[in-house]
Amino acid sequence: MMIKYSLLVLTSLLYASALMSNHQNKENHGIITTIDAYKQSTQQLEKVPQPTEKLNINQKIQEYFSIAEKYRCSTHFDPAITYYKKVLELAADHFESCFNLGNIYYNRNEIETAFNYYKKALNSNKKSPQLYFNAGLCLKQLKQSDKAIEYFEKAIQLKPNYSKAYLNLAKTLQEKKENKKAIEIYLTYLQHNPNDSTVYRHLGSAYRSLNQFEKAIETFRTAYALQPKDTTIMLELANTLTILNQLDEALGLYQKVLLIKPTTTAAFYNISYVLKRQGYVKEAIELLQKIIEKNPNHAQAHFSLGLSYLTLGNFEDGWQEYEWRWETHGKTPNKFSKPLWDGSNLQNKTILICAEQGLGDTFQFIRYAQSIKRMGATILFQSQSPLINILSLCDYLDFVISRDKQLPDFDFHVPLMTLPLIFKTHEETIPAEIPYLHADPKLVEYWKEKLSADKNFKIGLCWQGNANYSTQFLRQVVAAKSISVKLFEPLSQVPGISLYSLQKIHGTNQLKELDGSLVIYDFGPDFDTTNGRFMDTAAIIKNLNLVITVDTSICHLSAALGTPTWIMLPEPSDWRWMLNRTDTPWYPNARLFRQPSPGDWKNVIQQIVQALYALLRPSQTDNSILEGISDLGRHEHQTIQQINNQKTTKDFSLLPIDEFIDKMTWITINTNQQEDSTSNVQTMHLLYSNYLKQWPSLKELTQQLLYANRYLLNLKKRLEEELEGDILDYPFAEIARKISRTSKFKKEIKKEIHQLIN
Questions:
Q1: What's the average model confidence in pLDDT over 148-176?
Q2: Alpha carbons 537 and 282: distance in angstroms, whole number
Q3: Which element (helix H / strand E) includes 132?
Q4: 422 in a domain, yes or no?
Q5: Phi, psi dihedrals of residue 489, rounded to the nearest 5°
Q6: Residues ≥6 apart with Cβ < 8 Å to 308
Q7: Is 698 in contact with 691 (CB distance < 8 Å)?
Q8: Residue 15 lies in a domain
Q9: How far is the C-alpha of 685 from the C-alpha of 663, rounded, in Å?
Q10: For the chain, what is the domain count?
Q11: How far is 494 from 150, CA to CA, in rounded Å?
């Protein structure tokens, strides 16, 4: 982590880019730029012979062509064009004239005209690889990729070692997302050009697009070795390392980029992203603020700053910056002739609310429509098509319309996720009237009958999100949030429960891979098909005792329906779940289970198994404890949830032992934490004594963890001091590296504790 360096460099050197932009070298292709060159070309022009009148056709062709060539060589292209065309009047397919005219028009960026001349040249010569290559370049610029590929391939057939043709063929394939074919071509090209760092960079990008990250990194490293000062290669390598959570090396590369090009805003931004991934959200905010200070219109920095504020619970600033989401994603809100609603009086007015982003976002934020309805408005809701049926059951939505339908008249419009800003939402004012989504009563009864034979504690499972997002970044986010269904196997050891799949479309194929040790019931191919998306899902959820799900649309649907919902979160988690919380203000009936480190789903499952055992103790096995939760009033529901959350917090025995010891050592070091009373410390030490009786080796590991946490605390204090001063970057960067190394050491200790217990 090099944030201090980044902040200082950004503050002092970003001005350089503005200065440099005023002194760019301008290349003048084919333009005479000096007096001497002008005189020379004029002299050449004076020597151009004029055509002789009494010549036969072949002699005229030769003479016109000769004149055209002399004009072209002296960079007088207009008269050259005139004489080339005179040639073509006499010989329509004269190869050299067509070819040269194609080149002139290509350099003038008159691409379609250039291609027509190249095509004409092919009538007289189909053996020229250069001609096919040039025509392919034209087709590529004309967005005719398939035809361009044909021409590049033909050029390679005629000239098997044609490097430029290989390179442009591969690039065109890559632009068409045909990365596997592109990789083959790049590799062939590199056989003839093994030191081309740019091609290695393109090859690495192709591997990354196929999620072959290890190969991508290896290829980027080769490019980096060939060009160790190429900042584009450094950024590509660092970005790929970030995907694989190799954050320390990525940060080092971002710093090196800044040493070479101090005004590389992308490096500053990516450092802030990595800091957030490492949990240093406050430090990321400081860096993002510096970026915005120097570049007030940096949309990504604004949006990332908004997410960071929201993660820390600073809703006031967070919602403001969240409005930059449109520019960040290259989109604009829907344009209407009617005004954007600003919170003004809606009595007897009609407002159009427009859904945006994912289905889960709509489930989460549609709650605000209830507040608008209480203002006396008629509500039109423009929805994603899959949600039409389920949202039509909400009595506070007067009309639910899909995006492809014509809209009736309305007075105001507003994007759905702008509503928290308009309502000035704080944590305490989040609308939390549960349930605010509803299932079809007939389907609820239907599935109640279907499930009536199962007297077990019924749990619905969802393990994967939408794997088909348009960008690789979003696909990687979904992959990090998803879990293999096989990891649920420890749940099958909990007596008295039945597991049901709520998975639809993505991830259902994993059920076929189960070997029988884990039984998960599904609802067949008609599930959510005949009755519409989410209709059966919602009705089934209302008949379940609990839903355990990853962070996807199902977690929002289940919680909004009022069913107890346990949400499994990756590390780091999405902004809406904030930091280090087991509860969420968005859903008082939800409980959060977090990865202690990126990718550690086994620990999450262990937490869930322990929580299930606690929930289903013999004195509490009556399923009715969780039934009817959706019928509770808001106040009663929140009161019960607060009591349950307090119990969860205090019942340290439910924590995985490695997490328990980690927490205990932190409390021992920092005895001034208000959240932990003396009685809690005593309870923890008593529980620890019991653990030591079972596992005496814990004592040494506990001492190591105590040392690591004490060292981390001191380092973090030093880090805060560095942030407040004007010291140069080296001490800051060194402290950051020590924090990273100590965190890894701590992770290994906790891993040893986990292995000891199991």
A1: 93
A2: 39
A3: helix 129-141
A4: yes
A5: -55, -40
A6: 276, 281, 284, 285, 288, 318, 575
A7: yes
A8: no
A9: 11
A10: 3
A11: 61
Dihedral-angle region of residue 356 (phi above 0 means left; psi in -120 to 50 means alpha; beta otherwise): beta
Sign of CA dihedral 735, 738, 740, 743: negative
Residue 611 CA to its chain's centroid (Å): 32
Q: Which amino acid is at 218?
A: E
- Return all residues near 551 (Cβ < 8 A) that are at least 6 apart: 360, 465, 481, 567, 568, 569, 570, 573, 574, 577
- The order of strands in the sheet holding 546-550 is 497-501, 457-462, 546-550, 565-569, 590-594
Supply 626's token pair.
């969780």
Torsion from C-alpha of 151, 152, 153, 159, nearest 10 degrees: 110
Task: Say if residue 191's pLDDT is above 50.
Answer: yes
The strands making up 350-354's β-sheet, listed across from edge to edge, are 399-402, 378-383, 350-354, 412-415
In a domain, 246, yes or no: no
pLDDT above 90 coverage of the chain, percent:
61
- Establish if 73 belongs to a structural domain: no
Q: What is the pLDDT of residues 323-362, one digit of tens each?
A: 999 988 777 788 899 999 999 999 999 999 999 999 999 9
Q: Which two tokens stand for residue 260?
A: 């070479």
**CA–CA gap between residue 373 and residue 389 (Å, rounded):** 20
Task: Clarify whether residues 378 and 484 are in a common domain.
Answer: no
Cα 536 to Cα 528: distance, rounded to the nearest angstrom? 5
In contact, 301 and 291? CB cutoff 8 Å:
yes
Burial code (b: 16+ CB inside 10 Å, e: under 16) for 574-611 equals ebbbbeeeebbbbbbbbbbbbbbeeebbebbbbbbbbb
Residue 412 contacts residue 338 (beta carbons within 8 Å):
yes
DSSP state of 351: E
Instruction: Copy the structure tokens of residue 403.
Output: 């995006």
**Domain shared by 500 and 577, yes or no:** yes
Which one of 429, 462, 483 terminates a domain?
429
Q: Tell whether 378 and 477 lie within a shared domain.
A: no
Distance CA(136)–CA(154), nearest Å, equals 9
Alpha-carbon span 495 to 601, nearest angstrom: 22
Tokens describing residue 575: 């902004």
Residues 472 and 420 reside in one and the same domain: no
Separation of alpha carbons 63 and 57, rounded Å: 10
Expressed in angstroms, the distance from the first to the final Cα of the chain is: 34
The whole-angstrom distance between residue 295's C-alpha and the CA centroid of its chain comes to 23
Alpha-carbon gap, residue 733 to 211, rounded angstroms: 31
Q: What is the CATH number of the domain that holds 492?
A: 3.40.50.2000
**pLDDT (tens digit per residue) in 546-589:** 999 999 999 999 999 999 999 999 999 999 999 999 999 999 99
Question: Which tens digits make up the pLDDT trace of 681-724?
Answer: 667 777 888 788 778 778 777 877 887 788 788 777 776 665 55
Closest by alpha carbon to 328, among 292, 363, 354, 352?
292
Domain co-membership, 358 together with 402: yes
Q: How many Cβ atoms are within 10 Å of 99's Cβ, its own excluded?
A: 21
Q: The tokens of 104 are what? A: 């002139």
Domain extent, residue 511, equals 441-650
Whether 420 shows a pLDDT value over 80: the answer reads yes
Closest CA to 497 of 613, 607, 593, 606: 613
Helix, strand or coil, per DSSP, at residue 44: helix
Contact 231, 212 (CB under 8 A): no
CA distance 444 to 452: 12
Q: Which of 429, 454, 471 is the last residue of a domain?
A: 429
Q: What is the pLDDT of residue 360?
A: 95
What is the rounded CA–CA span in Å between residue 436 and residue 644?
A: 22
Reduce the DSSP state of residue 350 to 3 states and report it.
strand
pLDDT tens digits, 240-285: 999 988 999 999 999 999 999 998 999 999 999 999 998 899 999 9
Same domain? For 422 and 465 the reply is no
In whole angstroms, give the CA distance from residue 537 to residue 521: 14
Q: Are residues 546 and 489 in the same domain?
A: yes
